[in-house]
Amino acid sequence: MFFFGLWELVGRWPISAAFPPFSQTLLALWQMIADGSLGNAYLSTLQPLVIGIVLCGMAGIGFGIGMGLSRTIEWFSLPIFIILQAAPMAAIIPLITYLYGIGLTSKVLAVILLAAPVIVMNSYKGIRNTHPSLIQMSRSFLGTRRQQVMKIILPHAAALIFTGLRLGLAMGFIGVVIAELLITPTGIGDLITYHSSVADYPKMFASIASIIAFAAVTIHALERVERRLFPPEIRGA
């Protein structure tokens, strides 16, 4: 989805101006690295991304676990997160801007609105997909509810919760780039917008390629960590 979103962005520019030679794009990327503009842009882009993902990781996982353990919380909350998953982000951005302005808060909220539903729903499904036979075994040994949650349900759901964090980070990349393009041009969004406005298409495409590569490497690294932490049978569950 991250790549599809940026591909839609690329499609806004005229065909005659699109796709400069690869050598020019690579040279433009090196120039932005050398003059520090790319590094400064990433410092600005990563700030709302990291804040949003940390908040989602703390609150979203807890909320998803609560939904999985409590039918009451599930009844009130599940429709909200289903709607948020289907809501068009571009339509919500103007509302966020109207309420919170064009500062850091709006960008963090954009990341949260895209990442939170994925993290919450994966945590919720991880809790609910615990094999019933394991819970029945715990009951047969007179295990308390707390022991069921701490020793069976949470360890069994850990792989899916981690997957939710990885997918949530992918959605967070989309959210922060959309926020930088639609709320206020900063970071990578500023580089893309500025170089497009001055028709410097090699640098524009170099900026797009850099965020795609950075997101892909980050998500792949988390996937490798996930494979090391969790055996295949738990990841399959």
Give me some keywords for this one.
mainly alpha, 0% strand
Question: What do these coordinates show?
Answer:
It is a single chain. By secondary structure, the protein is mainly α. The chain has a single domain, classed as MetI-like (MetI-like fold). Helices cover 84% and strands 0% of the residues. It has 11 helices and no strands. α3 crosses α9 and α8 runs antiparallel to α10.
Strand and helix map with partners:
Elements: H1 2-10, H2 22-34, H3 37-69, H4 71-86, H5 89-100, H6 104-128, H7 132-140, H8 145-182, H9 187-197, H10 201-229, H11 232-236
The CATH class assignment is Mainly Alpha
Order of helices and strands: HHHHHHHHHHH
Percent helix among the residues?
Answer: over 70%
The named CATH superfamily: MetI-like
Strand content: under 5%
Which spans of ≥5 residues are poorly predicted at pLDDT below 50? Answer: 2-17
Radius of gyration: 21 Å
Count of the domains: 1
What is the architecture at the second tier of CATH?
A: Orthogonal Bundle
Structural class: mainly alpha
Q: How can the largest sheet be summarized?
A: none
Short summary of the structure?
It contains eleven helices and no strands. The protein is mostly helical and 237 residues long.
